[in-house]
Amino acid sequence: MDFVCRLGLPSLDSVSQYIRSISTPVWVGTGVVAAATTYLLTSRPTAPPPICDLNLQSIEIPGGELARKSVLQKGDAYLKCYYDDAKTMYESFLRGCRVSNDGPCLGSRKPKQSYEWLSYSQVKERAENLGSAFLHKGHSKSNRPHIGIFSQNRPEWTLGELACYTYSLVSVPLYDTLGTEAIVYIIEKASISTIMCDVGSKVELILSSLEGRKHPVRNIVLMEKPPVELITRAEQCGIDVTSMEGMEALGKAHHQEPVPPQPEDMAVICFTSGTTGNPKGARLTHENIVSNCSGVIKTTEVSCPFHSSDTHMSYLPLAHMFERVVQGVVLVHGARIGFFQGDIRSLSDDLCTLKPTVFPVVPRLLNRIHDRIFGQANSAVKRWLLGFAFRRKEAELRRGIVRRNSIWDQMIFRKVQASLGGRVRLIITGAAPISPDVLTFLRVAMGCQFYEGYGQTECTAGCTMTLAGDWTAGHVGPPLPCNAIKLVDVAEMNYLAVNGEGEVCVSGPNVFQGYLHDPEKTAEAIDAHGWLHTGDIGKWLPNGTLKIIDRKKHIFKLAQGEYIAPEKIENIYARSSAVAQIYVHGDSLQKVKAAILEDMIRLGMEGGLKTFEQPAISRRVPLHEPGTAQGFFCFLATVACLGLGPGILEST
């Protein structure tokens, strides 16, 4: 005891007395803090190992062309199929039938009701019935193989597609935004004699376009019961209108054995809208589509593999190959596809009902989600808390940790995740550029694997895709394992391949077979060595990923000599909450009137636009009135009064 006193330490009696003096609330609080600390230390997540060295995501191919391939590609051979028993889209569906154990395949719902599902066996039977009817009507692989599909996304769309795959026929999607003249052009160019339509108004549109002229159309299959007057009007044009139900009954009565396609057989003719002239029909084979699907599967196989328990929300247009490839990936794994009701304003309700795990999305919708989140953080405290939570989760993202069970998810991001159904584990975005800030924020907020892809119809859908674990934004990832990419000189724009910059060119089994009946346009797109020239300008980053930096054709020179890429400016200004659509036009010589919005200048500055890329306003003209662009450019904007509703995804 004397020794303890000499050390100046408190006696045991003093310690005991002090402990007894501590109140119960203090003890409870201390215990809570200790328990929380222990929980955080023991439950701290660790990042899964990346699929490859993220500092070297692509490698140069020997040969002197400066082409690069994915490090996921084994040997010199491009990936043509991921599964040996799925080398065509028909075989892919049959594989899905087997691995699903006859689970749900295609689902749809009516307002305020649950999803109703067709099983894989039901889909297979109906596809065979519909395909048999096509054959009974005179279609075959060698005679009138083209079947038009003019419809919104719905189960019957995919049934028609599968019917074509089953009997080696070729689907040709049509869509409203092409315009009436373009639809007639496609019908005649592809010699389409049978068209599937979802609603009577589209049948009427076709009839109005074809009346009084020679045309190839003989049959229209309506996915609902056709009214008598519509049937009568069609007969006057020499066209037979039949319901989908009647067509399937016809095929059931005249059933024919499937005619399986070969990988090199044509599967789809996808007409691209283009900016000038008539649409061009990209000819895609089964191998094209399967190889592209396989590239996606290979890229996600470690971090986020697909399986039969997955659910996909189909709302992006099936007339575009992005959605078709995603559906192909889902079907080959025996997973299920739920379709939205057809009204984008009800998408949020559909998502909450379906609760998908796979969600492809375009940047426009991501921008809306992002802006709504920040719009609802309408006080300084909310904005600070949102920013604090973002920084905490971003720090985890930088370490390769992706999750949605953190305290910040429970407090802040849970409602955002719930707006997509609460079960999404894979998001893939493409079809247009996305802001790096928006992408990073939503990767944090959604707490799931979030991929960005790049491509075009001519390479089926995608040719690059980001890898899991690479949290950086502003690039589109390395080449897919199904293709190689090289950059070629664009000397007039000072982009040189030796500097790692140039026009993006693609080679591989996902590259299309050319444009339908258009050898001149085909020769412009595919060179003598088989490389597809995309028209986009890319740049290789040190880690082997590709960054899209410009567009080869969509440029013009200003009066003072600088080049302008209007697409880049449009993408930034479209973020304005007051703009629904925007078109940037340039004239090197003329002064033009411009409608200027205050926050568009701000968005341009935040988006990194240079001074000469921003509209110049005369100081003599008030900002709220039409100004004069001093020989630079003008933009025409469709301005809408947009309100922030309660839902993240509600249409504006």
UniProtKB/TrEMBL annotation:
EC number of this enzyme: 6.2.1.3
Record's keyword terms, sorted: ATP-binding, Fatty acid metabolism, Ligase, Lipid metabolism, Nucleotide-binding
InterPro entries from the UniProt entry: AMP-binding_CS, AMP-dep_synth/lig_dom, ANL_N_sf, LC-FACS_euk
Any one Gene Ontology cellular component term annotated for this protein: membrane
Reactions performed catalytically: 5-hydroxy-(6E,8Z,11Z,14Z)-eicosatetraenoate + ATP + CoA = 5-hydroxy-(6E,8Z,11Z,14Z)-eicosatetraenoyl-CoA + AMP + diphosphate; hexadecanoate + ATP + CoA = hexadecanoyl-CoA + AMP + diphosphate; (E)-hexadec-2-enoate + ATP + CoA = (2E)-hexadecenoyl-CoA + AMP + diphosphate; a long-chain fatty acid + ATP + CoA = a long-chain fatty acyl-CoA + AMP + diphosphate
Domain spans labelled AMP-dependent synthetase/ligase: 113-516
Keyword Lipid metabolism listed: yes
Molecular-function annotations in GO: arachidonate-CoA ligase activity; ATP binding
One Pfam family matching this protein: AMP-binding
Domain of life, per lineage: Eukaryota
SUPFAM superfamilies documented for this protein: Acetyl-CoA synthetase-like
Annotated function: Catalyzes the conversion of long-chain fatty acids to their active form acyl-CoAs for both synthesis of cellular lipids, and degradation via beta-oxidation.
Family: Belongs to the ATP-dependent AMP-binding enzyme family.
Record's protein name: Long-chain-fatty-acid--CoA ligase
Lineage, opening ranks: Eukaryota, Metazoa, Chordata, Craniata, Vertebrata
Name of the gene: LOC101070402
